[in-house]
Amino acid sequence: MDETLFYLLKCVVSAEPLSPSFMGGLTPGDWQTLFELSKKQGVSAVVFDKIQSLPKEVAPPRNVLLGWYSQALYVEQQLKKMFSLSAEYADKMYENGIPVVVLKGLAFGVYYPNPMTRECGDLDCYMMGKGKEGDCITAVIGGKVEDGGYKHAHLHYKGLTIENHYYLTNFNNTRRGVYTERYLQQLIDGGHRQLANTHLLSPSADFNAFFLIKHALMHFISEGINLRHLLDWAFFLQKEQESVDWENLVPEMEKCRIIRFAQVMTEMCVEFLGMDISVKSLRIPSEDGTGCALVHQVMQDIMDGHPDISKESFLQKCFRILRRFGRMWRYRSLASESYWLMVWNTFSFSSYLKRKVKLE
């Protein structure tokens, strides 16, 4: 089913109609498997937006179609509720002179053909150096504040979970980590755009390009990513490829050691989603003999799927940590830091120690 899902996503990205003859070859069991796979990869609503236009004779069986519709509707309803509460929360912060700059989810969703299909859960935001003030005001307006470590706090407002970022990355006091954090703060100072008619703000295209890759790499190394992360990059490039200042951004990606992952992500967009990328520095050089193998290794890792860590026992958590060490070693050529430094940081900045650091 992997190839069929790639075909569907390729048609979504290119806005080309689906081939009835191709889709007509799927059995009811194939459709059910495809639905479950798209759900696991975080792209079920995106795919449903495409397949609902299929002629009845080649459409999924009624029971699968209804289940898929129900899932897509759930995603849309959750996003609308999240956006409404996020806008309300941003209004409250605005009244107190605090900007709410959206990171990830809603900021990346605007690049999708239908933003209501981009799955996301929490509101990740950055308050431009006023995060602690934001915590206090959240408590005053009836919200709840929980410590989330040195990087962010977890806020709860009317059922909405907010990650209030004091810092943009887990820089862990390493030289490269500090440099990356400072550079991202410099980028996010470069201006913002309003999201719809709200006080929610979206960062610049340069910031989103850098942050998207940095964030996806962090997740990939520690626990793995899914196709939703790849679609984020694909739709971002589709809309902003010509507007990003790659001449200045790529050298900084090299300094922060995230350019290799950016190139792997881009090559996957080209090979599996059929995209045409004109920015040569985002492509793996042809003389790089290991590049193609690495691209396929990363895609295989994505399609293999990853365990749900939302509800895990102590032993499962221990196993996950050991698994993380294995991932760190396996993908050390993509990592921003050396293997042994990543291992050290896993313990030094663990959720148990709750070590506090400051960006000096």
Note down, in words, how this protein is organized.
The chain is an alpha/beta fold and 360 residues long. The protein has a single domain, classed as Beta Polymerase, domain 2 (2-Layer Sandwich), CATH 3.30.460. It has a 7-stranded mixed sheet. Helix 1 packs across helix 4 and helix 10 crosses helix 12. The N and C termini lie far apart (50 Å). The model has no long low-confidence stretch (mean pLDDT 90).
Helix content: 55-70%
The class by helix and strand makeup works out as alpha/beta
Q: What is the mean pLDDT?
A: 90
Report the CATH C-level class. Answer: Alpha Beta
Give unreliable regions as ranges.
none
**CATH architecture descriptor text:** 2-Layer Sandwich
Oligomer: single chain
Alpha-carbon Rg, integer = 21 Å
How far from one another are the termini? Answer: 50 Å
| Approximate shape | globular
Strand order of the largest sheet: 3-4-5-2-1-7-6
CATH topology: Beta Polymerase, domain 2
In short:
The chain is α/β, with parallel strands linked by helices and 360 residues long. It has a single domain, classed as Beta Polymerase, domain 2 (2-Layer Sandwich), CATH 3.30.460. The protein is built from 15 helices and 7 strands.
